[in-house]
Design a protein that fits this description.
Chain A: Its main location: membrane. The complex is a heterodimer of chains A (262) and B (164). Chain A has 262 residues and is mainly alpha-helical. Chain A contains 6 helices and 4 strands; from the N terminus they run ββββαααααα. Helix content of chain B is 95%, strand content 0%. The chains are: A mainly alpha (262), B mainly alpha (164). The interface between A and B is large, with 53 and 37 residues.
Chain lengths: 262, 164
């Protein structure tokens, strides 16, 4: 973590490193080592699998675990029903996977594994990962939109009641706002996760360097930073949940555009 | 910023493994497990609503039965009232009959008694008449020395008794 002795590089935590000697892995000419990022993707998937599998007892009167899983599926189902309507039912598997994948990724990245010598990695703090999720969502929106409405899908860019003379301008504005969606979707998650982790790292560097300097400096700068870190950790847990929710919610809104136009 | 600095080196790895693990999660968890969980929830919701419907049905049935029972009970009560009224009127009639009969018996007894009284009265008055006749004949025989026959004496006595 320390780039130089006594100095903390807040960006070092985002470094991707190939693991288990897989640097040389290639697929069709592309370099695909199994990195720490891929490991945490695997862990997020695995955790989701374990979590949902634990709720598969299918009891009529659910236990705690089954209740938890059912409340998550119910939450996604409700989100789609509220934003897309009855047509949203078929997106539940995708939305559930998306939401839980991001949620577990965000929470796993906040685990205090540094205490036991491991390093948690938040792959949602990489736009190369969030971008893929955003592009997948955007691709589904476009495919569903054109498959369902054909060229009528372009009417999405002309809101009802637009004066005739304004149509070309509004069309361009709406088109741009539509095309920006995958970027805003992917970047929002990436920026929120990265910012929180950088903030925690910067505050921790204050604690460490003032602690190493002298007790007086530690008392006026290090200790308040530490207290602030505790609060920001709680805030980050909230942000982890909110960002997963926002990603899922916006996906719902976009899917609604594709399903129902407006 | 490793996100940008390492982009060229690792973008393919990031995309590839994300697609792999997200795809696995989607097909195993999203497509395989989530529908079953939702089925369980839907099944439970259906069972609950069915149970509610059954309970509602049972309640309505109970209401109907209670209504029938009430009607039956009312009919029985009315019937019982009728029986009671009939018995009462029968009893009243019987009482009346017995009273009338007793009254008749009493009337007959009173009439007989009155007849006996009248008879006794007549007998008594005849006896008085006889005695008076005998006495009058004796008195006349003794005082006037005339032997009055029984018929004449009786006429005289009767005349006297009638006039007081």
């Amino acid at each position: 973590m320390a780039a130089e002795a006594g100095k903390v590089d807040p960006m070092h935590q985002f470094t991707i490193e190939p693991l288990f000697g897989t640097e040389g892995w290639q697929l069709a000419g592309y370099h695909i080592p199994f990195t720490n990022s891929a490991l945490w993707m695997a862990l997020a998937s695995l955790l989701m699998l374990v979590f949902v599998a634990g709720g598969m007892k299918r009891q009529l009167v659910p236990g705690r675990w089954q209740m938890a899983v059912e409340s998550f599926t119910g939450f996604i189902d409700g989100l789609l029903a509220a934003n897309v309507g009855p047509a949203g039912k078929k997106y539940v598997p995708y939305m559930f996977t998306l939401f839980m994948f991001i949620l577990f990724a965000n929470f796993l990245g906040l685990l205090p594994l540094g205490v036991v010598g491991l390093h948690a990695f938040t792959f949602t703090s990489h736009f190369s990962a969030t971008g893929v999720l955003a592009v997948v969502t955007f691709a589904i929106v476009i495919i569903v939109g054109f498959a369902k409405h054909g060229f009528h899908f372009f009417s999405l860019f002309v809101p009802h009641g637009t004066p005739l003379v304004m149509i070309p301008l509004i069309f361009c504005v709406e088109l741009i706002s539509f095309l920006v969606r995958p970027f805003s979707l992917g970047l929002r998650l990436f920026v929120a996760m990265m910012a929180g982790h950088v903030l925690l790292e910067v505050l921790s560097s204050f604690v460490i360097s003032t602690g190493n300097a002298n007790i007086g400096l530690f008392a006026i700068a290090g200790l308040p930073s530490f207290v602030l870190m505790v609060g920001i950790c709680a805030l980050e847990l909230l942000v982890a949940g909110i960002q997963a929710y926002v990603f899922a919610l916006l996906t719902c809104v976009y899917l609604n555009d594709a399903e129902n136009l407006h | 910023m490793p996100q940008i600095a390492q982009l060229g080196e690792f973008y393919a790895s990031q995309i590839f493994w994300l697609v792999v693990f997200f795809g696995l999660a989607f097909f195993i968890v999203g497509r395989g497990m989530v529908p079953k969980v939702m089925d369980t929830v839907a099944h439970r919701d259906k069972q609950i609503s069915d149970d509610f419907a059954a309970a509602e049905q049972a309640r309505r049935e109970a209401d109907v039965q209670e209504e029938a029972w009430r009607a039956r009970e009312n009919a029985r009560r009315a019937e019982a009232q009728g029986v009671i009224a009939e018995a009462r009127s029968k009893a009243a009639l019987a009482t009346e009959g017995r009273l009338a009969e007793t009254q008749r018996g009493l009337d007959a007894k009173i009439a007989a008694a009155e007849a006996r009284i009248a008879e006794a009265l007549a007998a008594a008055s005849a006896e008085i008449e006889n005695v008076a006749t005998d006495a009058a004949r004796d008195v006349v025989a003794r005082v006037a020395g005339i032997a009055v026959d029984d018929g004449a004496a009786r006429v005289a006595v009767k005349e006297k008794l009638a006039h007081g």
